[in-house]
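Lab notebook, design round three. We kept the backbone fixed and only want residue identities now. Task for the bench partner: fill in a sequence for the structure below.
Input structure tokens:
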């Protein structure tokens, strides 16, 4: 579930036929998809929509629409699962700030756990910015966080602010021609008139395109051949040592697609360095100055295992891993790169730096909750009580405390990474 999905480029797959169930309590976005260029990708029978929306209220999405559409959701999930030859996992894509994404999105997680308890649940959660125009987004996000803590196997948190920053950098690069870049007229970062998009011209397609590329790289091993392909379930098995600490920081390089911007390809070793740079993270964080529990590197293209080992050894001195998992690396090699690229790299890290995002979210929540502002909009919904807020706040605070305790038990300075030497 997500408000709009942008397309991305990958070569034709060898056998996969992904199944999707689109759910939104406002039919406008789903109708836009069905009338757009990707209408042939989705099964028009696998849709659940309403008219009125959830009113930016987690309680309406979770308590009202969850109960109202439960049986319909279960039936369509079963139909979708029956079309899968090998059901590896479920991906839930949703936003945290609104009512449907946060409320109904996390209700679906409970359904998946009840109906398919043995199938892993991966969640891509889009976190609102601190200046979000939905005033109740801190409530919705914290209430949703409790459900993510309890029912998800892996969560890939993504911040709207980070996506916007990345798109702005791409626009800046194309405007000023850095690195000799040029933009194609039909690019996602250009307008329909062929000029550079401005921030007023709806950057959501380009922002969603980054998320789409993240998921394409994450699932590449399931869709293409490779010398070291990994099962999606191995990510959870190797990167989540404690069940509640299942939030994985994602970084992607390159961040753009060459269908959008003609920029010279990065050298392979530089791409590994980029993946650990805060400029390439999909949340605002600096993992090099925080604690790693584990890390996965998923590489696409003509890359050798020796290239992986060399770069891991080069980067290890600058990364602070927990004392009991110094060799906590998981690697995957898929031989098929994205269209227009020679290589691509997705890094997934279980790192305590996500604590910053959660702490800031709690602070925004408390600014409203101390005044009991807007609570009445939630409490008039059947089944919603004020204890839901206190329990959600307690769950988030416990999660933050878990990260703090890990850092306290493994304190130590992180060193700056060695710089690449360029031969003249």
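Proposed sequence:
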């Amino acid at each position: 579930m997500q408000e709009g999905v942008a397309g991305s480029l990958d070569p034709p797959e060898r056998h996969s036929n992904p199944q999707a169930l689109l759910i939104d309590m406002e039919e406008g976005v789903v109708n836009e998809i069905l009338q757009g260029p990707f209408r042939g990708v989705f099964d028009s029978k696998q849709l659940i929509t309403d008219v009125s929306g959830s009113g930016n209220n987690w309680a309406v999405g979770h308590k009202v629409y969850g109960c109202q559409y439960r049986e319909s959701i279960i039936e369509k999930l079963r139909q979708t699962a029956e079309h899968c030859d090998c059901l590896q996992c479920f991906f839930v894509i949703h936003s945290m700030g609104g009512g449907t994404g946060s409320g109904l999105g996390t209700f679906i997680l409970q359904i998946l756990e009840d109906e398919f308890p043995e199938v892993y649940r991966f969640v891509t959660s889009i976190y609102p910015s601190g200046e979000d125009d939905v005033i109740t987004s801190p409530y919705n996000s914290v209430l949703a966080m409790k459900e993510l803590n309890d029912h998800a196997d892996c969560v890939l948190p993504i911040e709207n602010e980070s996506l916007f920053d990345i798109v702005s950098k791409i626009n800046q690069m194309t405007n000023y021609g850095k690195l000799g870049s040029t933009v194609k007229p039909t690019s996602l970062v250009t307008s329909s008139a062929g000029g550079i998009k401005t921030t007023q011209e709806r950057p959501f397609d380009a922002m969603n395109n980054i998320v789409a590329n993240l998921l394409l790289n994450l699932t590449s091993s399931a869709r293409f051949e490779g010398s070291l392909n990994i099962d999606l379930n191995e990510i959870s098995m190797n990167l989540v040592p404690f069940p509640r600490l299942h939030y994985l920081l994602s970084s992607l390089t390159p961040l753009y697609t060459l269908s959008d911007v003609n920029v010279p390809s990065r050298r392979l070793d530089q791409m590994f360095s980029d993946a650990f740079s805060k400029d390439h993270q999909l949340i605002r964080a600096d993992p090099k100055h925080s604690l790693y529990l584990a890390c996965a590197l998923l590489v696409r293209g003509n890359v050798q295992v020796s290239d992986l080992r060399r770069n891991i050894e080069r980067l290890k001195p600058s990364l602070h891993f927990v004392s009991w998992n110094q060799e906590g690396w998981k690697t995957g090699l898929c031989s098929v790169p994205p269209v227009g690229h020679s290589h691509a790299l997705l890094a997934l890290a279980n790192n305590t730096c996500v604590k910053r995002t959660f702490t800031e979210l709690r602070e925004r929540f408390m600014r409203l909750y101390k005044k009991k502002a807007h609570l009445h909009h939630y409490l008039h919904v059947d089944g919603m009580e004020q204890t839901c807020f206190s329990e959600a706040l307690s769950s988030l605070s416990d999660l933050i405390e878990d990260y703090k305790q890990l850092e306290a038990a493994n304190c130590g300075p992180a060193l700056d990474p060695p710089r690449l030497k360029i031969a003249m």
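Keep this in mind before ordering anything: DSSP finds 13 helices and twelve strands in the chain.
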